[in-house]
Task: structure prediction
Amino acid sequence: MLALLNLLAILASGLAGPPPDRGPWLAIRPAEFVTVEIHPDGGWRVLDRGPAEPADDRAEQAMSGLLGGAPTPPKAELPTARPDTVRFVLKPTARGMMLLVSNGYGRRLEYRGVLRRQAEGRPEPSSVCPVLGRLQGIEDWPYPFAELDVGAFQLVEETRQPMVCR
Result:
């Protein structure tokens, strides 16, 4: 009987799945998307992660028009975050790297970024900008790197104060 209870406990622990990701940094690698849920205390949990999708290529094309690239295709269907989630997509580009951030919350997303030029390299702080509620933001770097870590998430009410990239 005790062996059966131990077996059931082991099986139940496997069904519960891994604990939520609440560490200080969320690692994003090139050509990858990550969808997260942000908790009021700044913690987060990964809901979905995988290779960047074809819709992310359309977003990159549309955003590159803003940076002086090819014209934006009319009515391009861009990927958005589900309500109450944030979706990050890190894409290699001809110039370097591009981060697309879709904020599905009704509040402004503020966060910090740290990049690693090499997989086991020294972390380097990077400037990132807030993303308004229910909108998309873009970050652009003129060089490639191996990983971007984001964290220190805060969802803040919109104010008339200017947004500050930090």
About this structure: The first strand starts at residue 25 and ends at 28. The beta strands are 25-28, 32-38, 44-51, 86-92, 97-103, 108-116, 124-126, 136-141, 147-156. DSSP finds two helices and nine strands in the chain. The chain has one domain: 20-156.
